[in-house]
Amino acid sequence: MTDINNWHPYPRYGVAAAIRSMQRNSIDLENQEEVQEFLFRALEEGLEKFMIFPLEQADGREMQINYGYLEGKKVDPGKKSGQISGNGFYTAGHVVTANNSAGIVKEVKAFQQLIQSGKFEFDKPYELKRSFAPLVAKRNKGKLSMSNPRVGSLIAAFTAITTITPYKPATYTQFKAGDRDAVNVGLIPDIPFYDDATQSYPLLEFIRLF
């Protein structure tokens, strides 16, 4: 049986976020069909709340511009689509990224396609990239070249969910005093998914605040 408490806090949070997306109280990680449904739904919701855009066009006058979320299937950050800050398109403040929103979208859609194809294997090694796993760092593993670490596809998918889920405390701010530019910052707590002593789910209780 999979013990989520033994996972790194980052993908562990993704499990709780997926449960929150499905508005459920638990998940059976041994049930592949159920887990893939949770994964797909959480990734889909993340895309639906990934990018904000202006609901009105500025006409040269001083005015208040209201923003809303861009429909998930239309999200395509970059100059080609015109979804750039110069046109009023911004990555939502809860998306943990270092200005690589196009890379995140690409990886999230790749996960969705893999799930839909029926070829998603929980334990199959999957490369962690900084686009959807911002805490990762390349390592050489005794070789001359550096490479990204690999984990099982299940943990990789939950990592991506943590990166894009709106269900976390987050803000767009200067990371430290003296920074010239603001960045997206999220808080991922290192608390247990399940507490055997109290038979409670601390991480779920935390995430329901958001």
* Helical coverage, percent range: 25-40%
Spatial separation of the terminal alpha carbons: 29 Å
Which whole number gives the mean pLDDT?
A: 89
Strand pairing plus helix content: what structural class? alpha+beta
What is the string of helix and strand elements?
A: HHEEEHEEHEEH
According to DSSP, the number of beta strands is 7
- Unreliable spans are none
Strand order of the largest sheet: 2-1-3
Shape: globular
**Sheet with most strands:** 3 strands, antiparallel
- How much β-strand is present in the residues? 5-15%
Cα gyration radius (Å)? 18 Å
Question: In DSSP terms, counting alpha (H) and pi (I) runs of 4 or more, how many helices?
Answer: 5
What does it look like?
The protein is an alpha+beta fold and about 210 residues long. It has 5 helices and 7 strands, in the order ααβββαββαββα. The longest helix has 17 residues, at about 30-50. The model has no long low-confidence stretch (mean pLDDT about 90).
How is this structure best summarized?
By secondary structure, the chain is α+β, with helices and mostly antiparallel strands.
Topology of helices and strands:
Elements: H1 9-21, H2 32-48, E1 51-54, E2 67-69, E3 90-91, H3 101-117, E4 125-127, E5 150-152, H4 153-164, E6 170-173, E7 183-186, H5 202-207
Antiparallel strand pairs: 1-2, 1-3, 4-5, 6-7
Helix pairs in contact: 1-2, 1-4, 2-3, 2-4, 3-4
